[in-house]
DNA sequence: AAAGAATGGCTTTTT
DNA sequence: GCCATTCTTT
């Protein structure tokens, strides 16, 4: 372990062991290194029992990385250190104290989709129109309450408006359902431990004694529940070190409150504050641009990142004609980079909203540039995978209504609305789960199947269980008989799922269903586990936080997109957009492109957007704006309104190839292109296509 | 109950 | 313009 590699501020952050410590770590200031070194220092130099150390992160990925690094520094002794996300720690505490919170040991975890399903069902059972009472809004309201540690009782004191009264009603039922279903939602994983701590001081004391030294990463992103949770755990010994950057707080829409980090000194009066302002990541130009942008925020702690790195190239600014042109520009720049020997894995394309990836993907696909899209839940969000997981969940916890509703008729067993209605009535009346309400009919067959699988699940391995499920439920047979490409892809995905369970078993030995479900309930993306391939990375700026790339393309920097139009009317939200922009810029190590489009089709409408205000905030001497107007002239489209079309005529389109006119209207024609483009409306006489 | 048609809504989302 | 959910038809 080589502490000499740390700069003076980093060393101080590592070696200030006792008492509260606040580390304000700017982007690229070696934060991760400080965290891992500090843990190593505690164990190695201060003789602190690894069992007494707790390190909390927000993502599984961060936890996994930290664990790996510390294991490589300390050896196997590091496995005794509790390094996990807030939520994984919550699961651990609930597992160890389930009966104190009214749960059974085989509880399952609902993700936010499951939660929404449950809320939709409750609204339906209450005969409330989801058009008037938007299920998502209800869910967000309940989740927001839980993040602030308000249970339905607390909430009832604040519910005034008619909508809030409805939410209250739903919230009360929702709480009951979770207990009957023996299920916890994400928010419960924090709220329930806190409830236990408050009600059972001896339990809190137990964890305080266990976790004498606490480290929290990304502290600016903690919400009220996490804040209280940490405060309670650290109250006795106050050996708490929080690391974060208020300028990178970008999750307030999920309840994160960066005032937690700004107020730390106030909460822990004798704390030591350490500023990490030396940046090791980016060139001077990139860093200056980031500083230029963020200094326009009013609500922040003044801090200025600096670096010894070279000045570097200027930031390339390109204004494209439209979103297709934007994608083509990115493509041509990437091809140029790769031609010059750059690796694909050193290139990232960042955007504000997921919908923006589409055009880029099309361009990259067209030219066979290998890429991956992060965070679009490709895998776990697939229907067949969700169905399989629902089977696993209901086998483990038959009271799980959400999973039951998902798969009771998958594959089709002739169980429909009527059956569900009568089961629901019975379950509501007797306060039992839907599963327990089953006592006859076709649904009895389903119940027996689950019970049979449950018994089996205790005897065979996880991967074998998956096989048996696919077999006995008829999922496999149904897909195999379909003989379509889509069905084949689904089967492949299910095979892929088996390779995940196999992977678990290979690395951990026998994995129980319980262990597996706990883990995958808290993981949203399998891609987290493979990033060695040489691929261009596409992702939202949010998902890019904590990462760095040699070359970064920041696309869609337009008013309305970035900053997003929803933030226009709220100063606080605009500042969050600016922080997001700061995060985006500081991802780049060597080269940064800022790109936008003059016009863009958004939600099917054509819009013309001015360049983002954030571009104007960057000193123009840092920008290398290319002659985009020239580009536009080259690519400009003209329209000849005099051309008429007949149904059945063939046309050739610059981007989509040959197509057939299928209908003719006043100003537009509809053209059918071969799969996968399909039907498109085109403006008559547009120069992007011509008759053939 | 299942399949096809229409409606609507829409940022970000570590867990 | 695209998806998911809900409505309508068979």
Structural account:
Helix content is 46%, strand content 16%. The chain has 29 helices and 24 strands. The structure holds a DNA duplex (15 and 10 nucleotides).
Structure described in brief:
The protein is an alpha/beta fold and 692 residues long.
Return the structural class: alpha/beta
Per the principal axes of the C-alpha atoms, what is the gross shape? globular
Could you give the distance between the termini?
A: 71 Å
User: How would a crystallographer describe the biggest sheet?
Assistant: 7 strands, parallel
Q: Return Rg in Å.
A: 28 Å
Note the beta-strand portion: 15-25%
Tally of helical runs: 29
Number-wise, the strands total 24
Write the layout of secondary structure elements.
Blueprint: H1 8-15, E1 21-25, H2 31-44, E2 53-57, H3 60-74, E3 82-85, H4 86-97, E4 108-110, H5 112-125, H6 135-147, H7 152-156, H8 162-180, E5 183-185, H9 188-199, H10 201-210, E6 213-216, H11 224-234, E7 240-244, H12 259-262, H13 264-267, E8 272-276, E9 278-279, H14 284-294, E10 306-307, E11 315-320, H15 323-339, E12 347-351, H16 357-366, E13 371-373, H17 383-396, H18 401-407, H19 417-430, H20 434-437, H21 441-457, H22 462-472, H23 475-482, H24 485-508, H25 513-521, E14 536-540, H26 541-544, E15 549-554, H27 571-585, E16 588-597, E17 599-602, E18 605-608, H28 613-617, E19 623-625, H29 628-635, E20 650-653, E21 657-664, E22 668-672, E23 679-683, E24 689-691
Parallel strand pairs: 1-7, 1-8, 2-3, 2-6, 4-5, 6-7, 9-10, 11-16, 11-19, 12-14, 12-15, 13-14, 15-16
Antiparallel strand pairs: 17-18, 20-21, 20-24, 21-22, 22-23
This protein binds a DNA duplex (15 and 10 nucleotides) through helix 3, helix 4, helix 26 and helix 27.
């Amino acid at each position: 372990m080589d502490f000499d590699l740390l700069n003076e501020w980093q060393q101080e952050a590592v070696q200030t062991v006792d008492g509260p410590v606040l580390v304000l770590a700017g982007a690229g200031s070696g934060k991760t290194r400080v965290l891992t070194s500090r843990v190593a220092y505690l164990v190695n130099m201060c003789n602190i029992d690894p069992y007494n150390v707790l390190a909390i992160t927000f993502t599984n990925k961060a936890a996994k990385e930290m664990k790996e690094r510390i294991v490589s520094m300390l050896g196997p002794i590091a496995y005794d250190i509790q390094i996990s996300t807030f939520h994984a720690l919550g699961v651990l505490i609930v597992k160890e104290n389930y009966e104190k919170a009214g749960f059974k040991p085989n509880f399952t975890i609902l993700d936010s989709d499951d939660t929404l399903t449950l809320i939709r069902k409750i609204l339906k059972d209450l005969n409330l129109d989801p058009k008037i009472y938007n299920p998502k809004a209800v869910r967000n309201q309940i989740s927001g309450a839980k993040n602030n540690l308000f249970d339905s009782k607390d909430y009832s004191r604040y519910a005034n408006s008619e909508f809030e009264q409805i939410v209250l009603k739903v919230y009360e039922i929702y709480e009951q359902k979770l207990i009957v279903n023996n299920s916890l939602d994400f928010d419960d994983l924090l709220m329930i431990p806190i409830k236990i701590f408050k009600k059972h001081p001896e339990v809190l004391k137990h964890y305080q004694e266990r976790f004498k030294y606490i480290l929290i990463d990304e502290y600016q992103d903690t919400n009220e529940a996490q804040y209280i949770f940490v405060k309670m755990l650290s109250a006795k010994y106050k050996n708490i070190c929080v690391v974060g950057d208020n300028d990178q707080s970008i999750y307030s829409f999920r309840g994160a409150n960066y005032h937690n980090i700004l107020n730390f000194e106030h909460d822990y009066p004798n704390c030591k504050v350490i500023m990490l302002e030396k940046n090791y990541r980016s060139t001077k130009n990139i860093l200056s641009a980031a500083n230029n942008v963020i200094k326009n925020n009013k609500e922040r702690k003044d801090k200025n990142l600096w670096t010894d790195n070279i000045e570097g190239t200027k930031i390339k600014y390109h204004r494209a004609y439209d979103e297709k042109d934007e994608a083509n520009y990115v493509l041509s720049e990437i091809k140029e980079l790769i031609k010059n020997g750059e690796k694909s894995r050193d290139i990232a394309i960042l955007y504000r909203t997921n919908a923006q990836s589409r055009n880029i993907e099309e361009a990259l696909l067209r030219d066979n540039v290998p890429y991956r899209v992060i965070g679009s839940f490709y895998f776990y969000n697939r229907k067949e995978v969700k169905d399989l997981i629902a089977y696993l969940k209901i086998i483990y916890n038959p009271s799980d209504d959400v999973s039951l509703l998902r798969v009771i008729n998958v594959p089709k067993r002739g169980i429909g609305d009527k059956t569900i209605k009568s089961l629901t009535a019975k379950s509501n009346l007797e306060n039992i789960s839907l599963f327990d309400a089953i006592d006859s009919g076709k649904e009895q067959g389903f119940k027996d199947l689950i019970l049979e699988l449950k018994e089996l699940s205790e005897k065979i391995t996880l991967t074998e269980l998956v096989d048996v499920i696919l077999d006995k439920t008829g999922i496999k047979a149904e897909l195999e008989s379909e003989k379509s490409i889509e069905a084949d892809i689904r089967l492949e995905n299910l095979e892929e799922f088996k390779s995940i369970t196999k992977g678990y078993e290979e690395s951990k030995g026998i994995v129980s269903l319980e262990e597996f479900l706990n883990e995958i309930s808290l993981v949203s993306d399998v891609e987290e586990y493979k990033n060695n391939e040489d691929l261009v990375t596409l992702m939202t700026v949010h998902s890019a936080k904590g990462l760095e790339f040699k070359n970064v393309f920041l696309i869609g920097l337009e008013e309305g997109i970035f900053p997003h139009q929803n933030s226009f009317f709220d100063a606080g939200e605009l500042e969050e957009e600016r922080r997001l922009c700061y995060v985006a810029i500081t991802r780049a190590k060597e080269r940064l492109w800022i790109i936008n489009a003059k016009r863009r089709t958004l939600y099917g409408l054509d819009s013309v957007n001015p360049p983002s205000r954030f571009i104007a905030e960057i000193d123009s001497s840092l920008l290398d704006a290319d002659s985009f107007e020239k580009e536009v002239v080259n690519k400009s489209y003209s329209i000849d309104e005099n051309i008429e079309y007949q149904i059945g005529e063939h046309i050739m389109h610059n981007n989509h190839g040959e197509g057939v006119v299928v209908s003719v209207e006043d100003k537009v024609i509809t053209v059918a292109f071969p799969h996968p483009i399909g039907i498109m409306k085109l403006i008559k006489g547009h120069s992007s296509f011509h008759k053939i």
